[in-house]
């Protein structure tokens, strides 16, 4: 007869094996020392069900004219979580630049609960077009609340629920000349506004610093959530072997946003020793002056359609943040970080960046060691990796991680949006039930 203590051994062995698998799963994800909610977003997609049983009327507003990516991320979540039986969506946009239309159209697909967008200047017609909205998703709230103050005042009196996206947390101090807090204070006092930031570090700045200057009763009523602006965009396969190692800087060609002088100086130091490296400035605006020494290594990709914008970057080796100031680590969110996830191309990131943008993990980026510049990190990566094949393997690994992260964040955003769509029931019984077509 087998002693009982020996019968316990397989059970004990299985227990330790499961513990080992769990620990490996947690710690192999990289730059986390606790379970990261951005990494572990699983389960069924969230579905919005109005408490009243009647479809909610939702206005999606962007009157700033420069945040198509954030708008499309909200559209993605609206399409993923709502149907005709739960919500009607009325978009008011100032601009749809760089042919973002096709990506928006693909995002919406056959969902007939989303109306054709109209220019934000026509927002004053909302009464005849929409009636009283239940929820307003204000993508450019800092601009919208000032540009359309009369309409916002009507909504406040009507008990509308406002979702206010904060892009510049440093402009929400009580005595700021921008006046954002003063305009939104009545909304805070009535409990009708939830603030949304685009990264955890902006959320922290808003709560810990800006809101610390507000009236105590307003601080107590502050509601805020984080929404990472990602969506699905077409990507292109990497060419193998990679003849060109593309380094991308994306966005506005503004020296206040990107430190071009330092970056070009760093590139000049390695240009001769790394013939395959090429830097692409992908965006819009006035191009910065490029030193003669590296002109053959720098190429501008100006005013691309968003399809080509993300497609081009997805073929590259890396996205370089090259921040011109520390503001992107403290009070505002850079579009380069979600662009990395949307396009599936790793960002060069030091610990400081990963600490700010907590939804990224170290195995989804090209990690910059302490004291390294973006170019230093790329130079080390390319020169120390055993072979071009090994570099491609590392790149493909990170691309898979990033595109999986994109889906995880879209699912997490859906859950966030469902909570944002909760609202007080209005007395307006009229619902616009026409079968819409998305016409461009």
What is the CATH architecture descriptor of the largest domain?
Answer: 3-Layer(aba) Sandwich
Radius of gyration: 24 Å
Q: Strand count, sense and closure of the main sheet?
A: 7 strands, parallel
Low-confidence stretches: 20-36, 435-440
**What is the CATH C level class of the largest domain, in words?**
Alpha Beta
If you had to describe this structure to a student in words, what would you say it looks like?
This protein has 440 residues and is α/β, with parallel strands linked by helices. The protein has two domains: 56-229 and 414-420, Rossmann fold (3-Layer(aba) Sandwich), CATH 3.40.50; 245-404, 3-Layer(aba) Sandwich (Rossmann fold), CATH 3.40.50. Helices cover 40% and strands 14% of the residues. Strands 3-2-1-4-5-6-7 form a seven-stranded parallel β-sheet. The chain is globular.
How would you summarize this macromolecular structure in one to three sentences?
With 440 residues, the protein is α/β, with parallel strands linked by helices. Helices cover 40% and strands 14% of the residues.
């Amino acid at each position: 007869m087998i002693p009982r203590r020996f019968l316990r051994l397989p059970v004990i062995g299985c227990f330790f094996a499961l513990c080992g698998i769990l620990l490996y799963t947690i710690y192999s994800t990289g730059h986390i020392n606790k379970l990261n909610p951005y990494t572990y977003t699983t389960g069924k997609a969230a579905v919005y069900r109005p408490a009243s049983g009647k479809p909610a009327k939702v206005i999606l507003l962007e009157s700033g004219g420069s945040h198509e990516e954030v708008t499309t991320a909200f559209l993605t979540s609206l399409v993923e979580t709502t149907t005709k039986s739960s919500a009607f969506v009325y978009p008011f946009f100032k601009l749809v630049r760089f042919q973002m239309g096709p990506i928006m159209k693909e995002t919406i697909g056959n969902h007939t609960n989303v109306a054709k967008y109209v220019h934000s200047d026509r927002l004053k017609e909302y009464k005849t077009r929409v009636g009283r909205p239940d929820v307003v998703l204000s993508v450019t709230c800092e601009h919208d609340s000032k540009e359309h103050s009369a309409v916002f005042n009507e909504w406040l009196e009507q008990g509308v629920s406002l979702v206010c996206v904060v892009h510049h947390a440093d402009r929400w101090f009580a005595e700021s000349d921008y006046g954002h807090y003063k305009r939104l204070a009545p909304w805070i006092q009535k409990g009708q506004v939830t603030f949304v930031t685009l990264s955890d570090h902006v959320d922290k700045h808003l709560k810990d610093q800006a809101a610390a200057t507000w009236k105590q009763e307003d601080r107590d009523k502050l509601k805020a959530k984080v929404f990472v602006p990602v969506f699905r965009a077409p990507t292109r396969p990497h060419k193998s072997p990679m003849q060109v190692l593309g380094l991308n800087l994306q966005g506005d060609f503004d020296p206040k946003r990107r430190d071009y002088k330092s970056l070009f100086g760093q590139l000049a130091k390695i240009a001769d020793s790394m013939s395959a490296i090429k830097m692409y400035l992908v965006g819009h605006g006035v191009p910065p002056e490029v030193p003669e020494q590296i002109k053959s290594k720098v190429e501008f990709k100006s005013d691309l359609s968003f399809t080509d914008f993300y497609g081009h970057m997805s073929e590259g080796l890396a996205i370089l943040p090259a921040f011109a100031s520390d503001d992107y680590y403290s009070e505002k969110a850079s579009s380069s970080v979600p662009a990395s996830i949307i396009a599936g191309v790793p960002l060069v990131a030091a610990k400081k960046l990963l600490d700010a943008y907590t939804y990224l993990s170290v195995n989804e980026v090209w990690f910059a060691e302490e004291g390294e510049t973006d170019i230093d990190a790329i130079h080390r990566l390319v020169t120390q990796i055993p072979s071009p094949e090994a570099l491609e393997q590392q790149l493909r690994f990170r691309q898979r991680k990033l595109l999986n992260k994109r889906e995880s964040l879209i699912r997490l955003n859906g859950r966030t949006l469902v909570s944002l769509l909760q609202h007080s029931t209005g007395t307006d019984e009229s619902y616009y039930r026409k079968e819409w077509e998305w016409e461009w």
